[in-house]
Amino acid sequence: MKCIKCGAELTSEMFACGMCFSCGCSISESKEAFEMEQSKIKAEADLAIQQQNQQRKEELAQKLQEEQRIYAERLKNHMLTTGFSFEGYSIAEYLGIVTGETVVGTGYFSDIGASISDFFGAEAPEYSQKLRVAKQAVLNIMIKNSTDLGGNAIIGISFELMTFSGNMMGVSVTGTSVKVNKHSDNA
Fold this sequence. Notes:
Elements: H1 12-17, H2 27-77, E1 79-80, E2 89-105, H3 108-120, H4 125-149, E3 153-164, E4 168-182
Parallel strand pairs: 1-3
Antiparallel strand pairs: 2-4, 3-4
């Protein structure tokens, strides 16, 4: 540390006496100035770190947003079939079996409504809606699993419905994730 008045390097003897031997300035003044300078340097460093962290957060947010956009596009364009081929496309690579499962509660009132609907021969809208939602949910899970493997299509899709005790219904879907390429029109 240097003396605030003359700039001389302060020694341990000077600290012991409490004054600069070169100019007679009190060490406490130099110490206060030193601490203020250190505080200023620390504040500037903290600000720089905060700015860097903010910049990293913004970059990560942009990267995540771009990844989500690409992922959403892949999901939207993912081809699905219960068959084993797509007209105008050829399978370039088989990536493996993909699945999706969910369990849905049917509830007491849905059971009563279904019983009444069955009695009168009508459709049970509560069950139908829950089944549609469950099927879409398992398809989305399966498509996500396929895109994670690098696939752009799923072939051989098959649904399975299960009932469990306690008013529970399970929906499972299975298929094979594949990469398909569109045939060229020059053939």
